[in-house]
């Protein structure tokens, strides 16, 4: 589904990312871990054509992301709060994204209905602008918006951060369900090793922009990651 | 401790975004600041002589004194609307080992050197100096000035006491209105009473010490009130505005552009800065009054053309020059969504055209000044709709400065760069120059026709222009994402 081909990014002389080759097949749940500055967000930004790589190409469903914009039709993403429009209410934001993704008001209502547990009554009908919501609730809105319009690829940067325990567990269920039928490819990054080993079938570790581990998740993976990071 | 606070203030001031600007803006801002200081100084120094010349048989000091009471009340209302206690600054200090009372003193002391308290001094101090030079008693003039400063400071602290109290504003407004009423209908001479108080201070400077007592009492009340409120859910809390949702489904008729139009309407209405821009565009409507009412400008039609462009162009100019920086906060998200960039631009264009047309309708009363003026406004409106709205979109592709929508609108130059100064040339100078040329050389109505014609031609070429503009935006996508991601 997604091919990352010799992607590197340099700012001046410092190289922040240099990834040889990663092939992500359709329906895979792909996890990205690494300490701060490992290049996780940079990689996602390049994948979304928000940053141009210094070298290399990324193809998303056979579309080179920097050459055509057609990948946008089947790719949903949430990177950070700047993906939200602060002066809208959650409902208005979902309606806006829905409009862009070809959903009418009824579709949006129906879609949001599935997430009433996930929202836990804190998002819809709150009479609050998104900028006034707590960090966790902003994240909930952003994650759900990324799933609108039945995308084939979903990219979430640190989706577990700032969420309360109950919501973390619910999010894990949602992600597992997404990749159940091997139809939807999910890419997430996280600092929480337990969560990511639980939901991802494959985990890639980046360190200072370089791929250092590419693991197929098994019962031993969590131990291996913990020993890797406990230096 | 105080030195710590002062250091913080110093850094806050010099590291604020005002100083992180390009050199061009710094120079312009410095000139503006200088201009206002000079104007106030001129009024302060010249005020005495002007009053003396206009009313030779009256004492200028007594005249000023007689209106001080109104100045005080007006000042209070102005403060009530504009001035807020700078209490958010202490949030990071709350958890540090600093006594609460110290923090409160810091906040209050900081408020007493605010802009609101300094501005008036540019008038009062030079006025007092002139008084002394002109042979008034030095002790009297100094006492008078001292009393004035105490009065300003008292107003400062009185404002914070009543700030949370709408009733207090009502009382002050009623008092002010009734004082003016009493004066106007000759029931009671309020000005004289106010004057006598300050005259008395001049003759007996010792009376100014009463002001010290008043100030001390007000400061103390503030201190007591605030000390009990230094909690995150009290004074040190960010206000959350309740949502005001309006039904915007009428915009759905616009088809593909509708989501963006709805978004833009909400953008304008729900953010301070954009709201200011929106309301300012109605003030621009009155711009013509300054020019059309004066005989001198009747001789220079080019100046009238200048005013005419502004009458209908207020919104397009003020809003258009910052496209797409208004959306800078969520620009990344927009760029990862699937839509034609054209739609995004089209929505901004429609907004500018609709608002300009609306302002044009509102400008119909200018017919009062004659058909010539009205033709000028019409030509200006056509130019604004046809040429300016497209040109502003084009110029927007050069915008590289983020705008933080949550910051207030007045005097906010965030997002300003050289672009904003350069675009004035084609927007304003071009039509005026053409108008002037044709008006002088060809005469008759050719000036209007040329200006309007440019507008019509641009409108006809809209499709091509939009193609070009869209390409420009797409070319600059990465640079813009990068620039908008940086803190403003």
Task: Note down, in words, how this protein is organized.
The complex is a heterodimer of chains A (231) and B (488). Chain A is globular and about 45 Å long. Chain A has helices at 40-47, 90-100, 105-113, 116-119, 135-146, 165-178, 193-199, 221-229; strands spanning 2-11, 14-24, 29-33, 55-60, 63-64, 75-78, 153-157, 185-189, 202-207, 210-216. By secondary structure, chain A is α/β, with parallel strands linked by helices. Chain A has a 6-stranded mixed beta sheet with strand order 6-7-8-3-9-10, sandwiched between helices. A 4-stranded antiparallel beta sheet of chain A has the order 2-1-4-5, covered by helices on one side. Chain A has 8 helices and 10 strands. Helices cover 32% and strands 26% of the residues of chain A. By secondary structure, chain B is mainly α. Chain B has 2 domains: 2-236, no CATH class; 249-484, no CATH class. Chain B has helices at 2-14, 23-54, 60-82, 100-112, 115-119, 121-133, 138-162, 166-184, 190-203, 209-227, 258-270, 272-284, 287-292, 295-298, 301-320, 331-335, 341-362, 371-396, 418-422, 424-441, 446-460, 462-475, 477-485. In chain B, helix 3 (60-82) runs antiparallel to helix 8 (166-184), helix 17 runs antiparallel to helix 18 (371-396) and helix 18 packs parallel to helix 22. Chain B is globular. Chain A binds chain B through residues 48-52, 69, 72-73, 75, 77, 79, 82-89, 92, 95-97, 99-101, 127-129, 131-132, and chain B through 240-243, 245, 258-259, 262-263, 266-267, 270-271, 329-333, 335-339, 405-406, 478, 481-482, 485.
């Amino acid at each position: 589904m997604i091919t990352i081909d010799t992607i590197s990014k340099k700012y001046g002389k410092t190289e922040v990312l240099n990834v040889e080759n990663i092939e992500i097949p359709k329906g895979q749940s792909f996890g990205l871990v690494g300490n701060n500055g490992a290049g996780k967000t940079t990689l996602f930004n390049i994948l979304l054509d928000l940053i141009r790589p210094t070298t290399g190409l990324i193809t998303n469903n056979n579309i080179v992301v920097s050459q055509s914009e057609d990948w946008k039709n089947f790719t949903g993403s949430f990177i950070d709060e700047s993906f939200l429009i602060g002066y809208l209410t959650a409902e208005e934001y979902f309606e806006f994204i829905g409009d862009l993704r070809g959903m009418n008001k009824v579709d949006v209502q129906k879609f949001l209905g599935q997430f009433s547990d996930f929202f836990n009554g804190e998002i819809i009908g709150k009479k609050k602008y998104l900028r006034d919501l707590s960090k966790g609730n902003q994240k909930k809105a952003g994650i759900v918006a990324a799933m609108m319009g039945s995308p084939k690829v979903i990219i979430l940067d640190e989706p577990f951060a700032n969420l309360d325990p109950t919501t973390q567990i619910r999010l894990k269920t949602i992600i597992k369900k997404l990749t159940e039928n091997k139809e939807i490819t999910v890419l997430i990054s996280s600092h929480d090793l337990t969560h990511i080993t639980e939901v991802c079938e494959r985990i890639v570790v980046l360190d200072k922009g370089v791929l250092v581990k590419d693991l197929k998740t098994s019962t031993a993976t969590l131990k291996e990651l913990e020993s890797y990071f406990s230096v | 401790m105080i030195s710590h606070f002062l250091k913080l203030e110093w850094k806050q001031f010099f590291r604020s975004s005002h100083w992180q600007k390009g050199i061009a803006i710094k120079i312009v801002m410095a000139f503006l600041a200088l201009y206002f200081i000079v104007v106030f100084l001129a009024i302060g120094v010249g005020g005495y002589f002007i009053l003396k010349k206009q009313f030779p048989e009256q004492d200028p000091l007594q005249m000023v004194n007689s209106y001080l009471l109104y100045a005080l009340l007006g000042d209070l209302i102005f403060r009530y609307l504009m001035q807020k206690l700078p209490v958010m600054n202490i949030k990071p200090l709350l958890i540090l080992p600093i006594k609460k009372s110290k923090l409160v003193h810091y906040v209050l002391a900081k408020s007493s050197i605010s802009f609101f308290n300094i501005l008036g001094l540019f008038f009062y101090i030079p006025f007092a100096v002139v008084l002394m030079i002109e042979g008034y008693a030095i002790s009297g003039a100094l006492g008078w000035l001292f009393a004035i400063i105490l009065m300003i400071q008292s107003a400062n602290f009185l404002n914070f006491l009543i700030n949370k109290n709408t009733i207090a504003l009502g009382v002050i407004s009623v008092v002010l209105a009734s004082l003016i009423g009493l004066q106007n209908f000759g029931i009671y001479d309020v000005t004289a009473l106010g004057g006598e108080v300050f005259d008395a201070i001049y003759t007996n400077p010792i009376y100014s010490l009463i002001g010290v007592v008043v100030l001390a009492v007000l400061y103390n009340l503030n201190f007591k009130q605030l000390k009990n409120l230094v909690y995150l859910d009290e004074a040190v809390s960010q206000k959350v505005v309740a949502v005001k949702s309006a039904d915007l489904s009428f915009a759905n008729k616009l088809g593909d552009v509708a989501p963006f139009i709805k978004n833009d309407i909400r953008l304008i209405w729900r953010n301070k800065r954009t709201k200011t821009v929106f309301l300012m565009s109605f003030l621009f409507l009155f711009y013509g009054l300054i020019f059309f009412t004066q005989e001198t400008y009747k001789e220079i039609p080019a100046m009238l053309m200048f005013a005419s462009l502004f009458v209908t162009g207020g919104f397009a100019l003020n809003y258009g020059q910052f496209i797409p920086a208004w959306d800078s906060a969520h620009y990344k998200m927009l760029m990862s969504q699937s839509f034609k960039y054209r739609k995004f631009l089209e929505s901004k264009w429609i907004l500018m055209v609709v608002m300009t047309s609306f302002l044009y309708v509102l400008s119909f009363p200018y017919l009062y000044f004659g058909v010539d003026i009205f033709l000028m406004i019409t030509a200006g409106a056509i130019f604004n709709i046809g040429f300016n709205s497209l040109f502003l979109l084009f110029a927007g592709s050069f915008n590289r400065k983020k705008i933080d929508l949550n910051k207030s609108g007045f005097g906010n130059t965030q997002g300003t760069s050289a672009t904003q100064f350069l675009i004035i040339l084609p927007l304003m100078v071009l039509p005026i120059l053409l108008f002037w040329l044709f008006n002088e050389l060809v005469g008759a109505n050719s000036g209007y026709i040329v200006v309007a014609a440019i507008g019509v031609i641009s409108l006809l070429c809209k499709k091509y222009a939009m193609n070009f503009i869209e390409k420009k935006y797409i070319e600059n996508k990465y640079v813009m994402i990068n620039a908008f991601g940086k803190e403003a």
